[in-house]
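Entry type: protein chain
Record version: 2
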Amino acid sequence: GSPTTVEGQMSADKVFAYFKGQHKTGTINYVITSCLPTVTGQQQRRSGFEQEAAKLNKTSPFKLKEVGFYNTTTDPATNLSNITNIYTAKRGQIGLAYAMCGPDTQNWGTVLKHNNDHGILVAGYNWLPQILNLIQAGWVAWALNESLYAEGYYTMMKLYQHASSGTALPKGVTYGTSTFATKANLAQVRQSPDVKYGNG
């Protein structure tokens, strides 16, 4: 799989690049939401984002400030309700929602769409079909995803090469790559095996 701490850093880098492109100044408040906050990967995504944001704050014309971290749960109805409540409480106070899993990303986009609110940037994860639709419609800025297909293909190819021709198996850790789905590459993402075969 992909290193989740690096995914958090990548997300922070993209957020800062976006706001710099908008010529932002001052303080931009943000919240982090997680559907599984006790899972190591989610904790690493959070720490990677927070550490990179702290580093980038030192040289940026604006500052990101975390004003809340929320457990949204994996239950679909509860997740939507929780994000609706967070939005209601923080509306007008935040400029960014860092949504660390698929249900959060989808529901942030859904809540903003229902409220016709383009004032909050949603930086999310996962290539679920509805998330891609929300990116296309402009309610989610982007979603980061690793290629489970590529990871599976790599593993089987190495095993096949070893069994068929004696090629040495790789040693150590081999990481996969993560890719942002945005409006710019959405057509390509929709054609990827990860979306076609439901691995989003």
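Comment: The two ends are 14 Å apart (CA to CA).
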